[in-house]
Amino acid sequence: MTVFPLASRPGAQDGTTTRGNREPGEPKTGAYLQPGRIFVGRGEEAVKTVLGSCVAVCLWDAERAIGGMNHYLLPLRARGSRSSARFGEVAIQQLLEELERRGARRNGLRARVYGGACVVDSLRRSGGGVGPRNIEVAERLLDHLGIPIVARDVGGRAGRRVVFRVGDGEVWMRHLQRGRR
């Protein structure tokens, strides 16, 4: 499992962002979450990611001001493949375990789910690609774990830029236009 704390210097090699990378109205972030990674933090910390067909699940415990985000690419790992946060079934479980290890209580957790778009026209015509399956895994596993989803913005044709403040569960999300990053 890869869990990233916030770095103290902007633009460091660990994926942190610089102040100049923010969109108008976007909260200041300390970390950029790459696909296949997990971030857990406390208080005022925030993490940002960009999604297409990938899905990000944000979990937070309001009472303990702790939360985290994963960013996974595929719904299920293939038989015999190594356990990795690149897969939704693994990433959600690893995020939950790390939050509980740091003091969060499962019955206090709330979830927000983002992503799962079909951004490639040819995939949309042939059934939607991996995005819908990524969404389904998140919804099914969170339901099985008894963690309510309090907000979601999933599916569609546009990617998303997501910023999650881990301490209060607030999310800033914007749909991306084609050709713009």
Descriptive key words:
181 residues, alpha/beta, 6-stranded mixed beta sheet, 4-stranded mixed beta sheet, 10 strands, globular, disordered N terminus
| Annotation field: number of helices | 3
Topology as a string of helices (H) and strands (E): EEEEEEHEHHEEE
Strand content: 25-35%
Straight-line N-to-C gap? 28 Å
Q: Would you tell me the structural class of the helices and strands? A: alpha/beta
Whole-number average pLDDT?
83
Strand order of the largest sheet: 1-3-6-5-7-8
Task: Catalogue the unreliable spans.
Answer: 1-20
Over the alpha carbons, how many angstroms does the gyration radius reach?
Answer: 15 Å
Coarse shape: globular
The number of strands is 10
Main beta sheet: 6 strands, mixed
Bin the helical content: 10-25%
